[in-house]
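Posting this for the archive.
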Amino acid sequence: MNTTYAYAAQHAQSPLAPFEIQRRPLRDHDVQMDVLFCGVCHSDLHQIRNEWHNSLYPVVPGHEIVGKVTAVGPAVTRYKVGDRVGVGCMVDSCRTCASCAEGLEQYCETGFVATYNGVDRESGDVTFGGYSTDLVVDESFVLRVPENLEPAGVAPLLCAGITTYSPLRQWGAGPGKKVGIVGLGGLGHMGVKLARAMGAHVVLFTTSPSKIEDAKRLGAHEVVISKNADEMQAQTNSFDFILNTVAAQHDLNPFLNLLRRDGTMTLVGAPEHDHPSPQVFNLIFKRRRLAGSLIGGIAETQDMLDFCSKHGITSDIELIPMQKINEAYERMLKSDVKYRFVIDMASLKP
């Protein structure tokens, strides 16, 4: 057992504070890593405040993790000490169900083991995440981080990156396709970058005129102010695919109206309360589809990292010390970050 320095929430009303945990001894296929950077996801805030009603306290958040291998178990074949690696939202799954067999561990039929706030299948212990100085994970759920990408900017790719990459790939974003991205936050800014790199015509939807210039810098061909009825009307029946990244409850109908026949809108934002039900005729009369998507499997996440390596894509980040995390959460709620906080874990080491 080795002592790990971390930050944890002890209950739904408590701020994150220093906490010590014991990482498990290395199993045969385990990789131990020194955590260098950890992204701050809105899910972290949902979990520490128990807004999804499934939190297991104490909660050590963090599932956008980049680190360096410091030790490996005796049966590890994929990694060696010194390798730059990453861990995303999962650290295990059943590995035998139909979804796992297809490389879709995120849809494991018995439920994947989350990087934090999950339950270890072997020991029964609650998992603790990347707001910590080191991590121990089975090699099958460890990813290789490209050496040509700046590691702090890679960290959010392990959640925000794959959450947007997977549906863009699944619904065929690419040359000749018109793709809408709703919202320009941590997820949305990655959606814009990735869809543009895939060759699609990219339109960003935002309620904030102040984001127009930045959206175009990130790769959007057009920007539509979604509160402007005329601008929305001009886009009616024109989209092949819309990726909706907004994590707040809102009316989906104005965006469904923009899909052409057989178009799809996929939801990846995870609101505390469900969206109002859309109008059925909006779907029926154009054979439109409303879908959802959850991160990606391990193989697809590696594909995403390799794609980002090829195209030089990382997240736009603001680097913070661990001691500023509670302040960062308050700023995140005000959308006062462009576009993802990343914790420099060196700030937590004694």
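The chain is about 25% helix and 25% strand. Residues 298-311 form the longest helix (14 residues).
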